[in-house]
Amino acid sequence: MRQPAVRLLRLSQVPYAELLALQERWLWRLQAEPGTEAGALLLCEPAGPVYTAGLRGGLTSEEATRLRALGAEVRAIGRGGLATFHGPGQLLCHPVLDLRPLGLRLRAHVAALEACAVRLCELQGLPGARARPPPYTGVWLGERKICAIGVRCGRHITSHGLALNCSTDLAWFEHIVPCGLVGTGVTSLRNRGSSPGPGRSHMPWSN
């Protein structure tokens, strides 16, 4: 039996709100006719700085006010996890998928996101990337996180996904405790010395 196709939508650099709106349209589409198609893979680079808090919170109202004063958006969204940052130089991958026609369970979906991020790091010359057991979700290089992963799943349909730091300004992370993990740090492809080559970008999708 032929496996259903997943559409690839490459949005380039867009406002985070535009990504969320497109994600919601795909969610509605898959929920309206469940099991008829697999869904879409949404790729983009955020156009501006955004802090997001997941289902477990992570930001008080006072903290949100302080972050907005820095010039960033602050949004509460429906993914798992706590607070993180999204901004220019970061690759966002949001698979909006109906897991049933793909024959996947949620844990396998999350593991596939981790494996994808690890492979992207390897292709950028960083073979030491690895996933770690909870509570250290995401993908790490040593003791620093290079890729955050947070997923929502309802009625077998996924949304949100991963955020890989490519050439992200890491100073934005200094204003929060990323993912609630005290004593850990973040890094990026560029920060770890990844060399994309002449005329190429640290954003993996643009090469």
Descriptive terms for the model:
alpha/beta, three-stranded mixed beta sheet, 11 strands, 207 residues
Give an overview of the whole structure:
With 207 residues, this protein is α/β, with parallel strands linked by helices. Helices cover 23% and strands 30% of the residues. It contains 4 helices and 11 strands. It has helices at 16-32, 61-69, 99-102, 106-123, and strands spanning 7-14, 39-46, 50-53, 73-76, 83-86, 90-97, 130-131, 139-141, 144-154, 157-165, 185-186. Helix 2 links the parallel strand 3 and strand 4. It is globular, with a radius of gyration of 17 Å. The protein starts with 6 loop residues before the first strand and ends in a 21-residue tail after the last strand. The relative contact order is 0.17. The mean pLDDT is 89.
Topology:
Blueprint: E1 7-14, H1 16-32, E2 39-46, E3 50-53, H2 61-69, E4 73-76, E5 83-86, E6 90-97, H3 99-102, H4 106-123, E7 130-131, E8 139-141, E9 144-154, E10 157-165, E11 185-186
